[in-house]
Amino acid sequence: MKAPMRLxxxxxxxxxxxxxxxxxxxxxxxxxxxxxxxxxNLHITTKFIxxxxxxxxxELQQALTSLPARPLIPVHVRKxxxxxxxxxxxxxxxxxxxxxxxxxxxxxxxxxAALGIPxxxxxxxxxxxxxxxxxxxxxxxxxxxxAAQPSLEFGEFTAGSFFLYRSQLxxxxxxxxxxxxxxxxx
Length: 186
Ligand code: 2AM
Hints:
By secondary structure, the chain is an alpha+beta fold. It has a domain at 15-47 and 76-99 and 124-159: Cyclic Phosphodiesterase, Chain: A, CATH 3.90.1140. Helices cover 24% and strands 38% of the residues. The chain has four helices and nine strands, in the order βαββαββαβαβββ. It has helices at 15-28, 57-65, 101-113, 140-147, and strands at residues 5-11, 35-36, 44-52, 73-83, 91-97, 127-132, 153-159, 161-170, 173-183. A five-stranded antiparallel sheet has the order 2-6-5-4-7, covered by helices on one side. A four-stranded antiparallel sheet has the order 3-1-8-9, with helices on one face. The protein is globular. The model has no long low-confidence stretch (mean pLDDT 96). Bound molecules: adenosine-2'-monophosphate.
């Protein structure tokens, strides 16, 4: 039997936004020994699917194809912060303002729930994971490096589709691969 695949859906970023974030990461990385994301991994998750059997991939793609049509989504990439809170952070993120994205996440959640995929209990809070924080350490140098940034605006774009991604966990880090694209209107 084949091993299940680890899947999620999300939006990709245009090269210009990745370049802006790459520049930010270059400046912040020396300030903290935390699990920094490779710029190529940056994406906006709309639904974490988890382990899914490869033989049911067609069924999942069919469900994702049949989401209601929607207008293009303007996406603004700005600000940074810590999840779940600044006192014991586990995730250092970049913020996403995107009207219409919560509806896409909700529609994706409904379509995948019909296949038995658990509905996300937490509120949807769109973000880019810039780094994962596994241990408690002094983040003051990172906060200072953030405060020294001349701008926390990383660009905007218009999304016209979302993607199904595969995530492969390797000792050197996660590798994300696009498996399929789903335009917002057919
Ligand atoms: P995160 O970056 O905020 O951790 C692939 O793992 C993507 O799915 C990541 O963007 C991750 O969000 C998201 N995700 C959401 N829920 C998850 C979960 N329970 N386990 C792993 N990843 C999850």
